[in-house]
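User: Is it possible to get a 3D structure for a protein together with its bound compound? The compound here is glutamine. I've pasted both below.
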Amino acid sequence: MDQLHQLTITQAYSLLRSKEITSRELTRSVLDRIARINSKVNAFITICEDSAMARAAMADERIQSGNGGPLTGIPISVKDVLCTRGIRTTCASKILEDFVPPYDAAVVEKLNNAGTVMVGKVNMDEFAMGSSNENSGFMITKNPWDVSRIPGGSSGGSAVSVSADMCLGSIGSDTGGSIRQPASHCSVAGLKPTYGRVSRYGLVAFASSLDQIGPIGKCVSDCAILMNALAGYDPKDSTSVNIPVPDYSDLPENGLKGVKIGIPKEYEAAEGLAPDVSAAVDRAVVTLEKLGAEKVSVSLPHTRYAVAAYYVIAPSEASSNLARYDGVKYGFRDPAAENLIGMYKQTRSNGFGKEVKRRIIIGTYCLSAGYYDAYYGKASQVRTMIMEDFKRAFTHCDAILSPVAPEPPFRIGEKTDDPLTMYLSDIFTLSANLAGIPGISIPCGFSGDGLPIGLQIMGKHFDEHGILKIASEFERATDFNTKKPDI
Ligand code: GLN
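Assistant: Yes, that's possible. Here is the predicted structure of the complex:
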């Protein structure tokens, strides 16, 4: 078998367990694939060839001794926003270009303990601010389905590395859609868990009341396996919730009888929704009905305020979180400065990119004395109304369906001059973060010109298992996730 990099985690696990392949062979195949195509798609910022091969050898020993689990020996990539001990963690920012963390993020530690083989750190929008990956301080990651197009952001490197078989699974972060959007644009599965489900200890903070970490996989069951490793209480993250974690990979094939799927009427009327996307989502609803689900109409009346509320809350929290990059404690310091204030100014002026600066300016303004009530305070009230919309809707249904992105992946450069248009591409994903609920994106079709389209399934707080179940039934009934980009 010379195409080992094409395996899913589920397939690789069974071949590793039966000793038909070794993790060293699998990891080699993945590293060779990265060497062949990374310059075409720019997915990896750092490739960890030596440590990956060493970990693969350790995993093989563990499997040999009968102590392996479903993730032992599985090559994965990690978004460069998660701290990795001894391996630089850049957040795709010049300000952290040479930052080497002295500790592992909680999720990285969990994945290491499970025996995964991290093959590298992947590209993203700088500090996770963006929807297209064009805001990386280093390079633009390209969509393997069409390299003239964006892969989605901000976890674009994660989605591309999975979609183009440069790893078997990846870990991303989602503050307003950053796992789901690139998953949708690259035709892979991506889950944003409930706020509090996965520890963010060691995740470089963007907007603390919204950030969540989650998996991206080639199929739904791979996301479930990764979730089993990621989820759970961690006293080091004060927002982590101490409730039992189910076995996410328990996804029996017994249809969707009794499951009520809510279709929000506001989403159908959303501005800028491409006809190909709405047609693919409509067809997905029909497929779910055939599987036994019942469709109900629900209303999320405050949806139209989500973009405005998010783009006050997220920049405000970012302006506070990013105050720590002052040239003293981490990463880059501008050597040309003559005094302390000048050093702060030059470090931040030269270290941060344009979008990050825009957000710091907006956020600082929104939080400043005299404006707090009018902006952050008001946006927080709107956020509560959005949460209540979901609470009400979930009294009528078990899950809510929507598109992920309003249109298939657009061309690189198409929206870079117009940040407001870019922000509007988050219309379907932001609400789940504002409400703290889980959401998954799975492949549900292709546009007329062959570009991927994703379906979003949102669930009640802590019901990741419920949405994984619906997603896995849909995946079994369709073949969208088996299609591969030709790269
Ligand atoms: N696109 C959104 C933003 O730019 C969300 C990013 C994210 O989820 N990290 O803020």
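The first helix runs from residue 9 to 17. The domain at 4-257 is CATH 3.90.1300.10 (Amidase signature (AS) enzymes).
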